[in-house]
Design goal:
This protein is mostly helical. About 70% of the residues lie in helices and about 0% in strands. A two-stranded antiparallel sheet has the order 1-2. It is globular. The N terminus is likely disordered.
Length: about 575
């Protein structure tokens, strides 16, 4: 009788489960249909609105401007309505933005800002979502004070310095007599230290707009801390992030390798047919296959490849950033397949660092991997460290032995450059220039040493980041920025150290070492440019979220352990009953 009563109960449970799963599948399909319908409706309405505005602009201004606006409007609408998908697309689009800018946009400034079409609406939508659901917008109170101080100083500089410059006369409107400051008797005023004549203060372009763009370049991607915090919601998405960035690195590095092969085979001429100074300058006319301006004059020993980015410098920093990302996947992913893929990606990064001709990538990529091995503790993880080192060494050794002349040429170029202009002396020179030329405690104004702001006025060439800050926002702004990024580095360190799950902690340590190095890196200005400016702030947000991942994962493992223990207990009881049922 007991056995007869148990069987129908089991059947009813199975039927109930199948009925529920069928309902869930139907509901999921219905939601998917509704989402597709909503997406198509939004895209159609946005495209109609974009065409309504873009077509007149194409007829009045230019076809490129009209096309840009026609694509811009639907992109803004869809990105606002689907913020998380827009942020994923933002990360995917960014490495190819240089190629798209010059292939489709012809270098149009609207295409250069096209990636922000996905970022800014998604940011605004996430903020609205957090307000609606009463989630905190300030994801870390520890960094809020230093960020607020820096932001206030930047706004003060924008209004008091850039705003005051807006009141000056245009330089073109000054007569030859008025271009120089004079004493009441008409004699020229001279600088007592240099003996150079003082010039009349005047403006070129729009200093205030230049300041707004300079502020956007300096702090525009800081909200990615907030985006990274809310985009990556669990361990599964963290692993997906690493794998996605790895795939992007492999694809971009493969395209960079093809670009190099096309140049060496003669399919692309590069700058080898140029003359004079053009043999030593990167040129847009010489672009090949992907990316923007490049320099390829092998007879003169000048090779600077842009990969998929707008310039060789951007490509170099993409390779440097991806040495951290591919390393993280190679040593932290839970799948052997993806860990192997991480090693392949790391090897491709090494190869491109050699063939790209960028000395900074050639120097930093191997150093970054060595620092990662020490600071993340993977050098002590012999099970993964030894096989990974063997595989990576074999891949790099094959490349070196098959192309010894190229490798030797790059090493010689690096040594010659170091001897001609040692980095520490170069940085000292940049600081000296900034100290001698900055004006007042608030500096010369935002954007005054930012290359991307030159469309709104003249800019000075300052080639390292901290002297650039001193030049633009003065000593107060420089110290405020250093205090902010130092605070961020300390806060993210505390966050990832608190994590106990090994795979999550390993990802966090790799990302944190990247943040640490970029925070205090004195050469060039990586935090002003893609992709470092994106990855730096985004990874900071992800690290701040890691303790929550760790908490949920440990809770899940604990529940699974309790469930397994319960199942074992039930099985033991059943065996006990069977043993004594007779």
């Amino acid at each position: 009788m007991v056995r007869l009563t148990l069987r129908p109960k089991k059947k009813s449970k199975k039927s109930r489960k199948s009925t529920l799963s069928l309902k869930e599948r139907l509901a999921k399909k219905r939601r998917a249909r509704e989402q597709r319908k909503k997406l198509i409706t939004l895209a159609t309405l946005g495209l109609i609105l974009g065409l309504a505005i873009g077509i007149p602009l194409a007829l009045i201004v230019s076809i490129k401007v009209g096309t840009s606006v026609a694509l811009l409007i639907p992109s803004l609408i869809v990105s606002y309505c689907y913020p998380r998908q827009a942020l994923w697309f933002f990360l995917i689009y960014m490495p190819f933005s240089g190629t798209i800018t010059y292939t489709l946009g012809g270098g149009n400034i609207l295409f250069q800002l096209s990636k922000d079409v996905f970022y800014i609406p998604a940011l605004l939508a996430l903020i609205q979502e957090c307000r609606r659901k009463r989630k905190p917008i300030i994801v870390s109170k520890e960094i809020f004070l230093t960020l607020s101080i820096l932001f206030i100083i930047c706004l003060t500089t924008l209004f008091l310095v850039n705003g005051a410059q807006e009141l000056l006369p245009y330089c073109d409107n000054l007569s030859e007599y008025d271009k120089f400051l004079r004493a009441p008797d008409g004699t020229l005023l001279l600088n007592p230290d240099t003996g150079i004549v003082y010039t009349t203060p005047c403006k070129e372009g729009s200093p205030f707009l230049q300041g707004i763009l300079g502020l956007k370049v300096l702090l525009g991607y800081v909200p990615l801390v907030f985006c990274g915090y809310y985009l990556i919601e669990d361990k599964k998405q963290l692993i997906f992030l690493g794998r996605l960035l790895l795939v992007l690195a492999i694809v971009c590095c493969s395209l960079g390798l093809i670009q190099y092969l096309l140049l060496t085979s003669g399919y692309c001429a590069g700058t080898r047919d140029a003359s004079g100074a053009q043999l030593f300058r990167a040129s847009l006319e010489a672009r090949c296959f992907v990316g923007g301006s490049l320099l390829y004059s092998p007879a003169q020993g000048q090779i600077r490849l842009p990969g998929t980015f707008v310039s060789p410098w951007h490509w170099a920093w993409f390779l440097i950033a991806n040495s951290f990302i591919t390393y993280a996947v190679a040593f932290s992913d839970t799948s052997f397949f993806w860990r192997t893929g991480g090693l392949v990606g790391l090897a491709l990064v090494f190869i491109n660092a050699v063939i790209s001709g960028q000395r900074i990538a050639l120097a930093i990529v191997p150093c970054a991997v060595f620092i990662l091995l020490i600071l993340t503790g993977q050098i002590a993880n012999l099970k993964r460290f030894i096989p990974a080192t063997i595989i990576l060494s074999l891949l790099v050794a094959v490349v070196i032995t098959t192309n010894p002349a190229i490798v030797q040429e790059r090493v010689d170029s690096f040594v010659q450059r170091w001897n001609a202009s040692p980095p520490h002396l170069f940085i000292q020179k940049q600081f000296r220039f900034a100290i001698d030329n900055h004006q007042g405690i608030l500096g010369r104004g935002l954007g005054k040493a930012t290359n991307s702001a030159r469309s709104f006025g003249a800019t000075s060439l300052v080639e390292t980041f901290h002297p650039k800050l001193l030049f633009e926002i003065g000593y107060i702004g420089l110290f405020a920025y250093i205090a902010f990024v130092t605070n961020l580095a300390i806060t993210t360190l505390k966050s990832y150290i608190s994590v106990k799950i090994p795979s999550i902690r390993s990802f966090g340590s790799s990302f944190w070492v990247f943040i640490l190095i970029i925070t205090y890196f004195p050469y060039w200005y990586p935090l002003d440019t893609d992709p470092v400016a994106v990855y730096y702030w985004f990874f900071a947000g992800v690290i701040l979220k890691l303790p929550e991942f760790d908490k949920h994962e440990r809770k899940r493992l604990r529940l699974e352990g309790e469930l397994e223990e319960t199942i074992k207990t039930k099985k033991a009881k059943k065996r006990y009953k069977r043993l004594f049922q007779f």
